[in-house]
Amino acid sequence: MTVTRSMAEDYWRVSKWKEDKVTPVKFDHLYAWFLVSCENLAQVHSTLGWFLSDLYHRNDQNVQEFEGQKEIYLYDLMSRVSSSPEKTLTTCVEKVNASIDRIRECYAGMKSYTDIKLVTMIVTDCCFILEFLEKESLLKDRLLVTYIVGDLMLLENQIPFFILQEIFDCSILKSTSTASLTNMLREIQPYINPFNEHLNIRTDGTDTTHDHILGFFHRSYHFAYTKPSSFSGRSTVHSAAELIRAGVNFKPNEDSKWALDIKYEPSRTCVYLPWGKPTLRMPQLYIDDDTELVIRNFIAYEQTSTLVDYSFTSYAHAIDMLVDTQDDVAKLIESKVVINNLGSNEEAARLINGICKEIYLKEFYYRPQWVQLDRYYMGYWPRNIAQLRRTYFSSPWNAIALLAGIVLFAVTIVQTIFTIKN
Fold this sequence. Notes:
The protein is mainly alpha-helical. The chain has 3 domains: 5-193, no CATH class; 240-378, no CATH class; 385-421. The protein has 20 helices and 5 strands. The strands form 2 sheets. It has a 3-stranded mixed sheet, with helices on one face. Helix 4 (85-98) packs antiparallel against helix 8.
């Protein structure tokens, strides 16, 4: 079915009712007006996620309650454009309709959706996203911004980047010739970056080679070095507490050219000395309520795409090997490699261990570093020093008992010497 100019005009006319303070129009009725030539569309809803429109979860009550806000955002976006709103909306509809087959290829389970339904949802959601990006810095409710950005990062909520760019070109770019979609996206980067690292985000031109918004941000974490020749086999697992007992220092990265860089700096001496310990430098991870959502969706994207690298999957596997218990989290916090804003260290450990469940690790980018760690750990002095610390210094009482034993042994020797002399 072809989307006509009259349909777009009807869609715009109903949206404009809000400005004129006419009786509020529900979103399903808005769609019915937009799709005036279609039959039985009174119950059509655009529901991708809570704030966006999840093409697979159409009846969620929380989603339906937010649809009115989308209506307002679409109207505000169309009103800002220098040309007539009707003409702009018509152009947007025609752009989406012309690419409808390409859009369908990006989703599974779209057979039940007519072209009209799909065009309506895509236009609405693209306009909502663009208007949100425009208003983001002005919104006073930062918690709401955090929730919306979180929904933008869900893999199930993604909209093809090329069509988002086309809607941007038809609307915002018409009124602001210097505007850039990638620049606008960069403004929400602080909400989605779980690391204290600068992201190298390209903002030049209209690069539509990204899959979607999630893919756009993922590109900022792409592996920055020549990949090791082999990723096969399991890496030996040593927890952070074990490695620290063996003499390994943990420190946050400094001036790394890759946001997820992990560097192993070997010992500066040939023998075991306290001042010659090796150092493992890692990105500083902020753990809060949104950390799991962001990392899980980056991993999900890596697991479902053959064209992106395994940066987050490798990082999640690496930190999962370092963390077994809350004691490991405490050690990483002391080393400033982890900042825990979630609550208890036990919760943080549970989050880290849960991220890697049921994921496939095709390529482990930190294998060379872990081989070096294992080689150091299995050395004579580090291994025995670690055993000594684990046995005698795992608690204050063990240390006191050891000290008392040493004192008693020394007193016994002194008494024996005096006895022999006398």
